[in-house]
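Structure ticket #2291
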Amino acid sequence: MSYGIYIGRNLTADGHAWLAGYGDEPSSHWLEIIDRAEHGSNATITVGVGPESDMPGHRTEIPQATATARHLRVSYSYYLGVPAPITNGGLNEHGVAVRDIWSTSCQALIDMTPKDQTGPNYSDLARIVIERARTAREGVDIMAQLVAEHGYSCYGGNSHIIADPDEAWVVIQFSGGKGLWVAERLGADDIRASRPGYVGVVPTEPNEKFLYPEHFIQTAVDLGWYDPASGEPFDVNSIYGDGKGPWKGMAWVEAEMRKRADAAPITFTDVCWAIQTERLTGDTAGYGQVVPLVHPSHPDLRMMWHAPVGPVTAPLVPVFLGQTEVPDEFAQHRYLTTGEAHRFLDRRKEATDPDTVSHVPQGVEVSDSAVYQYKRLMHLAFQDEDLLKDVWDHWRLMEERLAEQLPLVLRSAKHLLQADEQALARRVLTRESRAWLAQGLEDCRAFVAAGHARLRLRDALNRSGKPMAPEQFW
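Resolution: structure written out below.
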């Protein structure tokens, strides 16, 4: 399902915009740094969904770009049968950030979707934009061109927030196989939460704030869903979406952030809270990301704050586009990775059945899994309100300390980059991020040991089969 929130730069204490959110998927998640790459003129990529997907289709080959950008992203291994690895987006070297968010189409469009649908799926679109786009608007154009030329493989409707330091766009792709999409521009004074992705009333012609294909409104007319002569506005959500308008959680967090903005400029802590509060974030949140939308002096200085699970019980820690590696603990592990239950870290049957060999490197698997440890902490804290408060206070203090240290690290790396010492700058960024991630994981293990001992001794471990968790708005 996923969740994203955009805060315009005129509303923030830092003077820049923010994009934050998380993905709602049950499978494994891992952090990746993908380097810039050049591709041959005949290179292609495989996109779409297969016959095994919940809404089936055919995988196809489409042209690859001649060059793809360096970027940070979180990947995962399963959602509704969409071929892995899957991503909800990330941040690229040009400062374009992408968040994928579910957005249900109306049932009639879902029912119209061809069983042999082709074209990029939601993850393909997110990945291609962070590989290719230099601005948020270019990201919209890339998605529009891909859908027009190759189609769109859906699982029932979807959306993305594409953002750069100057603007953001909410882009919704609809089911039905008709090439329907709509985009709404967000600016410096906007706050927008998406869950699901939402666009309401649009003008009858595209303009600088709303974009859509030429047949967008005419399709509704042809289907008998809209009569231009009625004088009624064209409400995208009512006609092509679920008709529910902004959902309760969406409306609540937008109102809360607007209230904060009216009282004082929105701070980094406020932005983090929007994806950390237990009213919105729990076990379904597979990770957390907070991206400051800025233009630093060098692409290596771009960064995001990352949590390996829902940040209600995990810290958000800086990771840099310029760092050279992800710690093994935060890379892909077998834990919760789809398909690993029938694979081995053994090659005995590789010749006859290659899929019996694990996709996870042996050297990575022997390290601790940050996702596993932080999930343990989450479910201990959800059984103990006092522990939940202690964990919350500890991680928020850690984030405060990291926010104090971050400018010094960025300044050090900036000076090295200005001195044409990129390798040394990347070493600094890698060392600092690794140390911060390691410290958080060490503290997590300590909380897990203490929390489990406390609950065990009090005979308070929940073995009922009914998980305990704070009540949420979603």
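Closing remark: The chain has two domains: 3-295, 369-462+469-474.
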